[in-house]
What we know:
Radius of gyration: 23 Å
CATH class of the largest domain: Mainly Beta
Strand content: 35-45%
Distance between the termini: 5 Å
Structural class: alpha+beta
Number of helices: 10
CATH superfamily of the largest domain: Deoxyuridine triphosphatase (dUTPase)
Shape: globular
Oligomer: single chain
Amino acid sequence: MSHPTQLHREAIQPVCMDVLEAFDSFRLETRSATLDGSAPLRAVQGCRPFLDGNEAGLHLQFRYPAMLVCREGQAKLRLSEKGRNAATKDYAARVEELVAAGHLTADGYWHRQLQMGFVTQEGETLRVWTGYLVKPASDVWILVSTAYNRRCMVDVREYILSDTSAFVPLFVELDLSTLSHEETWLDTELATLTALRPNVRVQIRSLREDPEPGQRFVDFFSAESLERRATTKVSGDYRQKTAHLPDEETPGAGAVCGFAYCGGQPHLLSAGRFERFLTAGGMAENDPAGRTLEYGVTHALYDLHFRWAGVSLRVISRPSKEDVDRLMEEWSELYGTDPAERIRFWSNYMMPSRGPQRGEPYLTLSGWVLARTPPGWSSILDAYSFPDIQGMRGVIAHDTYPGALPQFQFCAPGEFRMAAGTPVGRNLPVPRSLLQAGYRNVSRCIR
Length: 447
């Protein structure tokens, strides 16, 4: 049975892709900034990047209860009766209907893949077809990744949807090597779809070569701002200064986003690119149209060593005195002694939650990195995950505030280390107009 075309999110939002729904085994939906009221109160009151990170993108979740069982390298997806019927009822016939309707190429790569079933395993990757076929809008890429800030306890192998020539199946590729238990419930967000704009270049320079982001940083932490922070629970400076930012993109062939490393530490930054693209012809290493998108990768300054005891975080290793002195000397020479002293807290690098609160399982890194995007652009800051530490997602308006601070959430008590130079976070430039882009369901359910 055919259904009228439907827009998801408000009609005023841009449409990032068209969606065909062949099976109704998954939900593709938006998420509230407060995670349906489950977000910590202090974060809701004072951390807009966290709230914006919760809302960004579209989220995939099983429509019915599901469990992943993995023993001796063999994975099985256990579904409820409703879930199994939603994913498999008349499966072969409906796949052939997609071919007959021209949505899949007969005997093409994806036709053959779907004939193998909606779940297949290759090594340590379990590929699950969501029942959707998608086609990105013109000049839009879709990043399929692990969900952030609330997610199932298994990582998703990332890839990019960039092919606008045809509909392609939307898969979730589960990385079985990241499982901690033989049985894992898949009962919350499993993956996130994030709309991106291609043709972005990253420019990396030292703070001395590009001092402007540092000036914005010391201006943000003015004496008045620090005084408010000392007397109130939440200063609200970032929220106020980013409350009414425009989201119009700067016209041009592509955006250039700048990153500055501080303290004379060039190993803090590198430029990254996506290398997995799901196209109409299968998986590829490059975009079929030859486009690229660079992002900034933040690396650990030194050997990080810390302990999460369940109610408090103990920082065991700190930056060397030589590194801190070099950082403060740089800031003093560029901006003056008083402004440099105002941001001395930033030199600690590892920054546990400040204040009397206990039991908050978070770690923030200052990174010693600053970022700058064109007007109308922000950065999605995705911290990388480690065993028993989940990287979190935030959205920072880097055209206004230059701080790039990856944040992590502990899953279990323990002692942790990250070697110097380890990638700890990704700064992904994106137009603000795409952060809450919707999709057009052109055939809500094919029958």
